[in-house]
Amino acid sequence: MEAAKGVLSHLSALEVRAKSRHITSRSRAEELRRSLKALNAQRDRLKAEIHTLKDIEKRKTQLYNRCADEEVEAEDGETEQLLHLMARQTQLKELLDAHHITGGYNVTKTRRGKGVCLTLATAYEGVYLDTYNLELDMRPTLKISRHNVPPFIPLSDLGERAGLQDDLRGFLYALGTHLNAFVGRRQQLRLVKELHPSVIVMESNAPCSILVLMLSVPRENKTLLCTLNYTDHTSYLPTGVRFDCEESPEWKNNRKLLMEMPVHRVLGTLKNMDHIG
Q: Rounded to an integer, what distance in angstroms lies between the CA atom of residue 205 and that of residue 212?
């Protein structure tokens, strides 16, 4: 009887996991569609800016030819217009260059062209969350002047490992991985508090790299502590899970689920299976 019950519990867990993966795949597909839409919009903006550059170049050529054909100096108004067009052309070229070297991140000029501000958006399960900004000095060498990246993100180490000077795209990708993993862990903590009021959060820290939960186990008339450690700061899934009790086969399977699925989803599964209150 106990063996049959164990098999049924395992099958139920597999079914829930399959449904969860299906939902995750669907959320991922939706996130990719949104990303594609954003990239298409950026492509259209770049095409418009390239078209503007061509118009400016054409206008410059016309003004130069007119001055040459008439063998007279351009009037003051035309000279001012020409200088304005040349300045605008330089500005657009620099923005396009910055957009190219950063791999498509949103770029805004700062301090009259002496630097650029890069915007990194974060998301979890298809929901856009916080936006982080980096202001970079472009001259004489590339360096970070200001930012709102959380202090526990190893910005300097990422810059050295990824090569801020030589591979800005690689640096931004590494930084984006850390930021998205962090907001994913933080969002899971929020969802645990919102969706599972019977679960008590005993401990957590700013990077959300450790989470201690008190779970009630009605069938055994007791409570137990569950500790999740996230030593891989590029992931929103824990690298280790520990219960403060002797692990039965049932709880060993629960520990495995916690390492493979977001914690708020697993808690819902455990509640449905009557493993926790």
A: 10
